[in-house]
Amino acid sequence: MRQDPFARGRPQQTGRPRRGINFRFIILLLFAGYGVFYYVSNRAVDPVTGETVLIDRALTVDDEKALGLQAYEEILSQERPADPDAPLSKEVRLIAERLIAKVPVVEAELARENGLAPSRFSESFDWEVNVIDSDQANAFCLPGGKMAVYSGLAPVAQNADALAVVMGHEIAHALLRHGAQRMAQQRLTQVGQMAGAMSGMDPQQQQMVMAAMGYGYLLPYARKHETEADYVGLMLAAAACFDPREAVPLWERMSAASGGQAPPEFSSTHPNPGTRIQNLQALMPKALEYREKFCEDAQR
Predict the structure, then answer these.
(1) 12 lies in a domain?
(2) What is the pLDDT of residues 80-114, one digit of tens each?
(3) What's the domain count of the chain?
(4) Which residue among 64, 107, 170, 226 is the active-site one?
(5) Domain range for residue 235?
(6) Distances 229 to 88, 149, 251 between C-alpha atoms, Å
(7) Does 1 map to a domain?
(8) Does residue 4 lie in a domain region?
């Protein structure tokens, strides 16, 4: 019997199954690579804190000022500014003037302590401050120097020194470019969300990953910003001849005003009031040195 030259009818040998290209894995790698590249290429050292920070190099100072001005105008169109001749408005303006006058001094001194040259980032700020009629015990300073103090802060602060501590804290956020840092952080977060969606994660898995990222990275990042602003703001208030020791009773009153219902620190954007007070107490000797060194009244 002649053999079939094409070997038909014989059992064929089975080899290993061929593996196809995992496009989802490749896409995930591309996103991860972009995230690493963005992080590495947009880091810079902040002279005021000496810390390496993440700020998008494409975001200019003028861009930040424009964003700050836009946000400020939107807030003032929705909130009611107080009469500029009202006693609280006049007091807030005087406090702001003293703080602003010491911004270059404190910025330069903190940079010198870190062995760095000051960025003089605030030199281009167009400072402005308003009081907003509201029960909120709050204040803010946006990039570019646009500030507001809510009238509800005054009863909690109780004195000009405590108001200056809060306003110095808010100025520090703008000086340290915390808004720009959060924008860069949000961009990385968006990259992570897109990578999760493209990798085939179901919504529940994506939610779990984002929750872990929030507790492990985003919230600690926000608390670090608050601690930095406390530090720089306290030095600024002291240099402007305000009593930095008023910071401790201020935050005790702030905690009492909230009813002691602050969330656990690990799930909050702000340090626990007790942690904050401990940090401020530890900073007090240095703040008093700044007051002695830079406050002309203290030298008389």
Answers:
(1) no
(2) 899 999 999 999 999 999 999 999 999 999 999 99
(3) 1
(4) 170
(5) 23-299
(6) 24, 16, 14
(7) no
(8) no
